[in-house]
Amino acid sequence: MTQNQPNRLDAIEATQAVHSQILNELALAHRELASFSTRQAERQQETLDRHDEVLSRLENSVSRHDEVLTRIEKQTRQNARAIEALTTSTTETIQLVAQNSIAIRDILERLDRRFNNGNGRSEQ
Question: What does the pLDDT look like over 76-109, one tens digit per residue?
């Protein structure tokens, strides 16, 4: 059994050496994986920061567009009211011109009858 002891001890030491080597390799792989994960997380955070910045600019742009659209809609309503008022004014002006034209024609006809008596001679 004493001869068996050294062989057994050698086998345990060999196994321990292999396990130590495996643990060292695992520790190295773990460090590399942790380093890679950290770099990936940093890159993802940078990407998220850029996306947040772009999103903020887009939100500002949408806000400005909404303001412009509101002003355009207000101006459009004002223009529509102005066009309606202009249309009403133009219609009334045309009616007045037509009424004045009729009145002027009546006056001219009366003057013509009064001074020309319809035969080219005036009544005096």
Answer: 999 999 999 999 999 999 999 999 999 999 999 9
What single-letter DSSP state applies at residue 69?
H
Contact criterion met (CB below 8 Å) for 54 and 46 = no
CB 115 within 8 A of CB 123: yes
Sign, CA dihedral 74-76-82-85, equals negative
**Residue 12, in any domain of the structure:** no
DSSP assigned state of 118 = T
Residue 40 lies in a domain: no
In a domain, 38, yes or no: no
Range of the domain at 89: 45-113
Q: Based on the structure, what is the number of domains in the chain?
A: 1
Rounded-to-integer distance, Cα 121 and Cα 115, Å: 7
**Roughly how many angstroms between the first and final C-alpha of the chain, as a whole number?**
171
CA atoms within 13 A on the CB side of 42: 6
Whether 87 is in a domain gets the answer yes
- pLDDT (tens digit, 9 = 90+) per residue, 15-36? 999 999 999 999 999 999 999 9
